[in-house]
Amino acid sequence: MTGCDDSFDIIVAGAGPVGLSFAASLAKSDLKVAMVEPQALERLANPPFDGREIALTYASIRVLRELGAWDAIPACHKSPVQGARVLNGSSPFALCFDPPRGSAEPLGFLVPNWQIRDSLFKIIRLHDHVQLLCGHSVVGVTNSHKGAVVKLSDGRRLTARLLVAADSRLSRTRDLLGIAADVNRLGSSILICRVRHERAHHQVAIEWFDHHQTIAMLPLMEGVSSLLLTLRASEANRLLALDDDLFLMELTDRCRGRLGKMTLASTRHTYPLVTTWAHKFWASNAALIGDAAVGMHPVTAHGFNIGLCSQKQLARRILTARRDRRDIADPDMLQRYENCLRLSAAPLYYATNLLVGLYSGEHAAARLARHVGLRLAQYFPFVRHGISAMLRR
Ligand SMILES: Cc1cc2nc3c(=O)[nH]c(=O)nc-3n(C[C@H](O)[C@H](O)[C@H](O)COP(=O)(O)OP(=O)(O)OC[C@H]3O[C@@H](n4cnc5c(N)ncnc54)[C@H](O)[C@@H]3O)c2cc1C
User: Where are the domains of the chain?
Assistant: First the structure.
């Protein structure tokens, strides 16, 4: 799987969950693929817990199943979400999302990010024509008549017909390609940890927009939830630095006893909140997938779901071009990829940003708008059913 070739059909920058799923989508073809990833091979092969529990839609589960990754994830790591409640401040009113009446199927499943990475990595390593170049990053990109010329951090130069950037929302490859992006640093962070708690969660997720904080409680195994606190970055860092006892005390206080007595069940992690929208999803001999193309705010839990969809759309076009002996970096094909992804991702991206603006505002008008918005959504069932249906697609 590792070697010293320097000429490939495709180079993927970034072995995150989207880069890995893209390589897995191509793994059964005869395309020669290289994956460039700064992390060490050992770490990719044994991804550590990173706090993230990814809410997967049924469409994403289908893609992971087709790749062989879904069945490789142990059942104990797939937590069903039987419902979701949205709360506003201290109001007892809750906007409810439930599966349609008569359906026994949950809204979706929560799976730890490290498990998704692990199962995808195990697929990649079975395929000799996917080469992993770990411990390196992409530091330069130029074009030749044959395709992209990629410079690595160790000075090596690789060539490929197509370079695919999957190197995060702050993608360096995207910058090197000269593709502009709206990068919005929100000044807040998400602090995440797992807690064991006294009260049952009944597999129902809670999103609670409280004053100066948002708390998400994601139901995992019985008596265990993942807690996500969205706070000013300085507040999140202060909490991260507290010792376990003080941290738990403050957490219990912030949750106002909603889960009963709590104990810590994992390490704590923080993520700065940054959203990204690339102005183009392709350039000459190159394309963007995953967060490098569309970096969603996590509040609607759709970043990876969109990323998985983006890699599938691109991989499908590449495989068809290969089968028909056409160019795998054809500009018309890449433009069609962009059109399709733009159409599916833009409504969610902008609706999510609108929601974030509405729910993070602390002034009286924003509070009133939230209050009215939640009640309207509750009394117009098509809104709730539309969102539930979107999750279950
Ligand atoms: C707190 C939190 C909760 C979330 N919850 C959900 C959820 O419930 N549902 C959902 O769908 N999404 C969720 N997301 C979003 C999801 O995690 C991301 O959309 C997903 O990780 C994007 O995958 P990616 O592979 O595109 O990028 P990343 O995961 O960012 O991976 C990028 C990879 O590129 C590598 N890299 C960086 N620079 C370079 C370089 N120069 N050259 C080569 N490689 C490089 C990195 O090392 C990394 O391995 C959440 C995100 C956060 C922060």
Answer: 7-50+113-183+274-356
| Pocket of ligand 1 contains residue 147 by CB under 6 Å | no
- Residue 37: which H helix or E strand, with range? strand 33-37
Number of other CB atoms surrounding residue 238 within 10 Å: 13
Q: Is residue 206 lining ligand 1, measured as CB closer than 6 Å?
A: no
Taking the model in full, what pTM does it have?
0.93
pLDDT, averaged per 10 consecutive residues of the chain (393 residues), comes to: 74 98 96 97 97 96 97 97 86 79 87 98 93 97 95 97 98 98 94 96 91 91 96 94 94 90 96 97 98 93 94 98 98 98 94 79 66 61 54 55
Pull the structure tokens for residue 125: 């390593």
In CATH, the number for domain 7-50+113-183+274-356 is 3.50.50.60
Residue 17 Cα to ligand 1 middle (Å): 7
Q: Are strands 83-88 and 204-210 parallel, antiparallel or unpaired?
A: parallel
Q: Which two tokens stand for residue 324?
A: 């028909």
Distances (CA, A) of 333 to 166, 197, 329, 337: 19, 51, 7, 6
Instruction: Output the CA 55–ligand 1 centroid distance in Å.
Output: 14
